[in-house]
Amino acid sequence: MDASVKGVRMSMRDEYRTKAAEYEARALSESDRGARLHFESLARDYLRLAELADRNAQIDLIYERPPRKSNSRR
């Protein structure tokens, strides 16, 4: 599935939620119990990824390298 609509890219959270919905739908249509449980597990995992992506998007963090240590001796 293409993650962009009219040139607008979906957020990772939205991509994960879309994938979770796809796996939920596959689980509902699956008659084999093992496969159904597997798809349900994948759907839960993708929902967790969506939650993490949402939390990470709210964090305003900029990484700066620590200053270099001087090699000169006194």
Descriptive notes:
This protein has a two-stranded antiparallel ribbon. Helix 1 runs antiparallel to helix 2 (33-58). The chain has 2 helices and 2 strands; from the N terminus they run ββαα. The chain has a domain at 9-58. The model has no long low-confidence stretch (mean pLDDT 87). The N and C termini lie far apart (62 Å). By secondary structure, it is mainly α. A hairpin with a 2-residue loop joins strand 1 and strand 2 (8-9). It has helices spanning 12-29, 33-58, and strands spanning 4-5, 8-9.
Strand order, sheet with most strands: 1-2
For the termini, the CA-CA separation is: 62 Å
Poorly predicted runs of 5 or more residues: none
The H-and-E topology, N to C, reads as EEHH
Look at the helices and sheets and give the structural class.
mainly alpha
**Oligomer designation:** single chain
Q: Helical percent range?
A: 55-70%
**Number of E-state strands:** 2
Tell me, rounded to a whole number, the average pLDDT: 87
**Beta-strand residue percentage:** 5-15%
Report the total helices.
2
Note the main sheet: 2 strands, antiparallel
Report the C-alpha radius of gyration, rounded: 21 Å
* Shape, per Cα inertia axes: elongated
Write a brief structural summary.
The protein is mainly alpha-helical. It is built from two helices and two strands.
Secondary structure blueprint with pairings:
Layout: E1 4-5, E2 8-9, H1 12-29, H2 33-58
Antiparallel strand pairs: 1-2
Helix pairs in contact: 1-2
